[in-house]
Amino acid sequence: MRLSKGGLIDRSAEISFQFDDQWYRGHPGDTLASALLANDVRLVGRSFKYHRPRGVLTAGSEEPNALVHIGKGAAKTPNIRATAQELYQGLYATSQNAWPSLKWDVMEANNALAPFLGAGFYYKTFMWPRSFWERVYEPFIRRAAGLGGLSGQPDPDLYEKAFAQCDLLVIGAGPTGLMAALTAARAGADVILADENERFGGRLLSETGTLDGKSGADWVASVVAELTAMDNVRLMTRTTVTGAYDGGTYGALERVSHHLADTPAGLPLECFWRIAAKRTVLAAGALERPIAFPNNDRPGIMLASAVRSYVNRYAVSPGKTVAVFGNNDDAHQTVRDLQAAGVEVVALIDSRAGAGTGLDVPTYAGQTVTGTKGRLGLFEIALSSGQAIQADCLAVSGGWNPSVHMACHMNGRPEWRADIASFVPRENMVPGMIAAGACNGDFSTAACLRAGIAAATAALGDLRMTAPEIDAPEAEDAPYALEPLWQVPGKGRAWLDFQNDVTTKDIKQAARENMVSVEHMKRYTTQGMATDQGKNSNVGALAVLADATGRGIPETGTTTFRPPYVPVALSALGAGARGKGFAPERLTTSHAATVQANAPMIEAGLWYRPSYFPKPSETHWRQSCDREVGYVRNAVGVCDVSTLGKIDLKGPDAGKFLDFVYANTFSTLKPGKVRYGLMLREDGFVMDDGTTARLGEDHYLMTTTTAAAGQVMKHLDYVQQLHAREMKVRFTSVTEHWAQFAVAGPKARALLNALLDAPVTDAEFPFMGCAPVSVGGIAGRLFRISFSGEHAYEIAVPARYGDALFRDLVARAEGLGGGAYGMEALNVLRIEKGFITHSEIHGRVTADDIGFGQMVSAKKDCIGKLASTRPGLHGPEREQLVGLKPAGAVKMMPPGAHLFEQGAEAVRVNSQGYVTSAGFSPTLGTTLALGFLKDGRARHGEVIEVVDHLREVKALAEVCDPVFFDPDGGRVRG
Amino acid sequence: MRITCPLCGERDLREFSYTGSDDYLKRPDHEASIDALDAHLHLRTNPAGETRDLWYHDACGAWIVAERNTITHEIHATTLVAEAGA
After folding, report:
1. A to B CB pairs, distance under 8 Å
2. How does residue B86 score in pLDDT terms, banded at 50, 70 and 90?
3. Alpha carbon of A227 to those of A433, A443, B76: distances in Å?
4. Three-class secondary structure of residue A520 per DSSP
5. I need a surface site. Which of A146, A647, A690, A947 has the fewest CB within 10 A?
6. What's CA B75's distance to the chain center, in Å?
7. Are strands A778-783 and A770-775 parallel, antiparallel or unpaired?
8. Which residue of A has its CA nearest to B84?
9. What is the pLDDT of residues A826-876, one digit of tens each?
């Protein structure tokens, strides 16, 4: 029911919205919950297990009951708390966990079955028969349980992530947080003030007390105005700080556009912040706790603080006749506020004997509520005296729990304060964080204001900044008078955790079944394991457990507080990492020309490289691949090899440094020459290979494989900074700076000589030579190296000329009967020659395994040298690189297949090795494979069995030398 | 977690990669015993408390020794390996 005056809503504007396909009206400033209550909608959801009718319990993000879907279709978001959802024009909400309707829910049958569905029922009930586990029980439980539903479609909403730094992060903008932020801001500190509500002020917006004679809202407005005008302050509304992490790092979820009817294009739904703060003031406030009395879960029963919020902030009375039940003076304030708003208060039930108020209200001191009636909404309560009172709303206050969560996120445990019957943070549980105000057990407004100033002053001291003189405004400073009351005995279930349907009975049963540790009790009963994480109920539950086990509350202890404080969608945590956003794309300079040629791309790390370049007449990739192999073997092929890592090394000790990182020697290489190098890890296994050119006396250019470019760069940094500090050498990655193309085949020199400003000859440019060249006046580099076994070159130009050079090279190659080739052909060409890639040097092979044992120089130390001499890292007991040729009817030898002696059972213990690479060689007209075979070098000529259990392939293969084609290397020198 | 790169200043943990104990600074050369190498490569203490370990700042290429506490995750100091001494 909407009150005729008051509140912080804008009555001049009306908003229409839908709940379960019914239209209602509200005002700007309403939440969905306050607007529903204004329309007398009390039933808003069904509980998780028993499908009990439920209504709004709170007025904040801790709400356990009023969870709804917002939106339709793909944009539907489940489990939105109606109490934290701002109302907007056209908002479309539906209830959850009810079928066919909220009022008539079939699964309410569970409520009658409650005796069988108590704590741990699923451990006991769904045991037999075993065959029912997956086919009957699991589908049944999955259908019955759960709250909101997902749309099942890709999420169309945008999410964003952002980063911020500050001197002081203030979490929560109630009286404590505002004073802390104001104090630090006036001192000149960089301040971030974050609050989950759309308005700053916290409880000040919901209470009637004054500050320096102003209303709470007016005082807040004046402070916010001052903070807004300061450029050292960032004000973050709708932002919940969700977790505290090492080194002053905090996670925070900003709900950017959940409150907008029309989201402007490009605006995200949510943004996940990572905030690095030098100091933090935790001013998270406190949450009121319910009392566990029989049938305390009916719609219409809500927390007293929530009733005050609805009355004072939203100008809504949650009922026509309200009763108030509490164990502390806050209950009395609730009566005062309701009466001031003109709402009829029919009873004040104060569990404290002799509690007096001076209020004009029927007061029942020393009594409790022992039962309630009303299936879809409260209409009557029963008192311990036996008296029944008609009321459609019951405001309950069991006292306040400080929101200690964030202070406990680094595994700290809060301490019990008996005087307020609550847990409070200990000092320094999170380094750099000071807890202040209600979250630290200060419950009066005046105490909070003072605590905010004190906390900021302490933080400023740590930051070596001077706190300004600042006075706290005059405000309410009443002592917090409370007598603990956790549960009320009586007939019927008394709820603790409303969202997961945990009752006092469940906790007692857990204790009886020896789940006496609070962590065991939690998991056995699911107490506090719902999306609200038991914010209202955990302390009550452990009080009941303490009682049931005969221990005190401090001995019983709390469960572990873990981030996030409120649910965070994975879409927000992983913002930006969907689809193409998942990984950066690295594109070569020939990319555009390659795409124009309709080449399908494959990913090589972050790079995109062409698989093959199809001709219109070709219907299968093998046709293209075979043709491209033919280009290189018979004419000339062009391939972009820019993705290989290039590291430029300079300095008088560059050669010495290379001798140390490579197994073989580079200091003896003549300028103008290139050498193949093998790089080991310190444990003796092969890390990478590639060619390194000596461009000048003190100047080398190393190439790495595409896959290991980053790893090798890091390794060089490691070796230099740890073990070669005295060497005069500097190096840097130049991978992106040069576009480099392989020009391979018998006509390679003919092609190049038509292009280069000065032609090259075999005499001055022999195999493994390198030199600067001029291409149309552009300074480039030419290397006579080959990964195909053919007479071949790699030509490099500054990257900005890459696109033009690639197109020119391909056109010239086509004129000579060749053309571009892709990765498939490149792979076949290198298998024909037995050249290795990371398919072979996969991290578990040594130099000796690949037949390069003699490359580890005896004359010098190098990384991995000592380890490579270890027993077991060389010799015939190891699997060695071999070639494999088909020797039976089946020609397939899939990579991953294992090798067995003929007749041996194809099981792991009999495995003699495995296939690493395979392909069809159009040059030799057969399938070829490389692999590793135990003592393989001594077994050339032997026929073995190739078995791939996954692809169900069984074949015979002849073991041979890995170099299938042109073993003398005549072609490469030709 | 925040780590201070001596070259770049305080940065988020995700800019760094962890390698292991600063024992790696004491590399046995090729004339050492296999046992010494084995210890260098594989044997590590696993302290609950103070430790010194190696981190790589991926952004600038600096290898860093971090003195930190494995219980509190506090980082007391960071130095460049190049200046730390073996």
Report:
1. 65
2. very low
3. 22, 25, 35
4. helix
5. A146
6. 12
7. antiparallel
8. A722
9. 999 999 999 999 999 999 999 999 999 999 999 999 999 999 999 899 899
How far is it, in rounded angstroms, from Cα A548 to Cα A542? 9
C-alpha dist (Å) from residue A106 to A98, A112, A142, A187, A236: 8, 12, 16, 61, 44
CA pair distance A557, A919, nearest whole angstrom: 65
Interface test with A, best of B26, B65, B81, B83 (most A CBs within 10 A): B81
Main-chain phi, psi angles of A128, to 5 degrees = -125, 150
Instruction: Report the alpha-carbon distance of residue A249 to residue A246 in Å, rounded.
Output: 6
Query: In b/e form, how buried is each residue of A505-516, taking b as 16+ CB within 10 angstroms?
Result: bbbbbbbeeebb
Instruction: Compute the radius of gyration of chain A from its Cα atoms.
Output: 38
In terms of DSSP bridges, do strands B75-80 and B62-69 run parallel, antiparallel, or are they unpaired? antiparallel
pLDDT tens sequence across A538-553: 999 999 999 999 999 9
Omega before residue A564 within 30° of 0, cis: yes
Long-range interactions of A585-592: CB distance < 8 A, separation 24+: A586/A643, A588/A640, A588/A642, A588/A643, A588/A739, A588/A802, A589/A640, A589/A642, A589/A739, A589/A799, A589/A800, A589/A802, A589/A803, A589/A806, A590/A640, A590/A642, A590/A739, A590/A741, A590/A802, A590/A803, A590/A806, A592/A803
Q: What does the alpha-carbon distance between residue A210 and residue A212 come to, in Å, rounded to a whole number? A: 6
* Best to test chain B binding among A721, A727, A869, A870 (most B CBs inside 10 Å): A721
Residue A842 makes CB contacts below 8 A (sequence gap 6+) with A916
Q: Does A276 touch chain B (CB under 8 A)?
A: yes
Helix (H/G/I), strand (E/B), else coil: A512 = helix
Residue A431: which of B58, B62, B74 has the nearest Cβ?
B74
Cα–Cα distances in Å, from B41 out to A356, A866, B26, B34, B67? 76, 11, 11, 10, 21
Its pTM stands at 0.90
Residue A724: strand pairing partners: none
Q: Which two tokens stand for residue A115?
A: 């005796």
Per-residue DSSP letter, A611: S
Handedness of CA A502, A505, A506, A507 (dihedral sign): positive
What average pLDDT does range A411-421 have in this prediction? Answer: 94
CA-wise closest residue to A650 among A694, A683, A615 = A694
Sequence length of chain A is 974
